[in-house]
Amino acid sequence: MNAAPSVTWETAFVAVSVLVGEPVDDVASALGGPGNGPATEWLRKLGAASREARARGLARVISELAMTIDAVRLA
């Protein structure tokens, strides 16, 4: 079984970084600055979103990432 990741590595990087408490600006810089890469729009949303919206967005990406890891582990 070859599980294709449902999220990009950039989006996963952003989610895990924010989850462990990295500031959104620092995460954007690590990806080459604002406006670069596939996770840019999601970074903007995280910076502007309410706490609830950020939590929902993080939960969605982290759960997809966990399912991908689990699928690879079981393959």
Overview of this protein structure:
- With 75 residues, the protein is mostly helical.
- The protein has one domain.
- Helix content is 68%, strand content 0%.
- The chain contains 4 helices and no strands.
- The protein has helices spanning 9-19, 24-30, 40-48, 51-74.
- The longest helix has 24 residues, at 51-74.
- The model has no long low-confidence stretch (mean pLDDT 80).
Distinctive features:
about 80 residues, mainly alpha, 4 helices
Q: What proportion strand?
A: under 5%
Order of helices and strands: HHHH
How many beta-strand segments? 0
Percent helix range: 55-70%
Number of DSSP helices? 4
Number of domains: 1
Largest sheet: none
Head-to-tail CA distance between termini: 5 Å
Question: Regions with pLDDT < 50 over 5+ consecutive residues?
Answer: none
How confident is the prediction overall: mean pLDDT?
A: 80
Class by alpha and beta content: mainly alpha
Please tell me what the overall shape is.
Answer: globular
